[in-house]
Amino acid sequence: MDIKAAHRSDLPALIALHDAAFGTPYEGRLVADLLAANLDAISLVASNSVELLGHILFSPLLVEVDGEAIAALALAPLAVMPGRQGQGVGTALMEAGLAQARAEGWDAVVVLGHPEYYSRFGFTAAALQGFAAPFDGPAFMALELRKGALSGRRGRIIYPAPFATTDAPAAALAI
Ligand SMILES: CC(C)(COP(=O)(O)OP(=O)(O)OC[C@H]1O[C@@H](n2cnc3c(N)ncnc32)[C@H](O)[C@@H]1OP(=O)(O)O)[C@@H](O)C(=O)NCCC(=O)NCCS
Predict the structure, then answer these.
(1) Ligand 1 binding pocket mutation candidate from 27, 78, 85 (most atoms within 8 A of CB)
(2) Of 9, 24, 41, 94, whose CB has the highest number of CB atoms within 10 Å?
(3) For residue 93, what are the domain limits?
(4) Number of separate domains in the chain
(5) Which of residues 171 and 153 earns the better pLDDT score?
């Protein structure tokens, strides 16, 4: 399996992947909207010699801590092709994406997704306890890449426009 940066020309294949993995049009549309707004900070594809296996996207997210913006990313969406799930592709994309985010100096990553899946990578809902945001509950989680970036701090989180225009119910933004 090969993991590399996604190309703009991959967009139709990425939309088809997310449509197939989620069974809804919301995530594919979100990818298209984030790319159109140049918000694809980290966009990685996993593939083998014959097919696209998975995709992960991270976009800049406004996270204010004590009135000042930190360098935060929203992780959404992540999908692996049906039939290729449960074979480590999602884990490999997560690890590569988080490694790149760390290397680039991002402070934190925020996700709305399955708690059991993202807790494997260190995401917790507790990290967001002090933050006003459009989501809450156990599925709304964050991972600090810089220690102390979020935990015990107060602030607010504002999602960029593409997240508001997907018409997706909050649950559909998960993963
Ligand atoms: C979720 C997803 C990205 C994980 O990628 P993957 O390549 O299948 O996952 P990996 O092979 O790296 O990891 C598999 C492990 O994660 C667990 N896992 C997979 N999906 C999970 C989920 N939704 N919640 C909790 N755990 C999950 C598996 O049980 C497996 O556990 P094991 O290692 O103990 O056997 C992928 O399954 C996917 O694209 N799913 C479709 C999108 C989706 O989940 N939609 C649900 C509605 S929001």
Answers:
(1) 85
(2) 94
(3) 2-173
(4) 1
(5) 153
Q: Please report the pLDDT score of residue 122 as a whole number.
A: 98
pLDDT at 150 exceeding the cut of 90: yes
Q: Is the pLDDT of residue 95 over 90?
A: yes
134-146 pLDDT tens trace = 999 999 999 999 9
> Is 0.90 topped by the overall pTM?
yes
Q: Is 96 exposed, middle or buried (0-12, 13-18, 19+ CB in 10 A)?
A: middle
Which among 98, 117, 166, 173 is the best mutation to test ligand 1's pocket, defined by most ligand atoms within 8 Å of the CB? Answer: 117
Cα(136) to centroid(ligand 1), Å: 22
User: Mind spelling out the 3-state secondary structure of 62-123?
Assistant: EEEECCEEEEEEEEEEEEECCCCCCCCHHHHHHHHHHHHHHHCCCCEEEEECCHHHHHHHCC
Give the ligand 1 atom nearest the CA of 80.
39
At 17-64, the pLDDT tens digits run 999 999 999 999 999 999 999 999 999 999 999 999 999 999 999 999
Residues framing ligand 1 (Cβ under 6 A)? 21-22, 78-80, 85-91, 114, 116-117, 174-175
CA 5 to chain CA centroid, nearest Å? 15
What CATH number does the domain containing 12 carry? 3.40.630.30
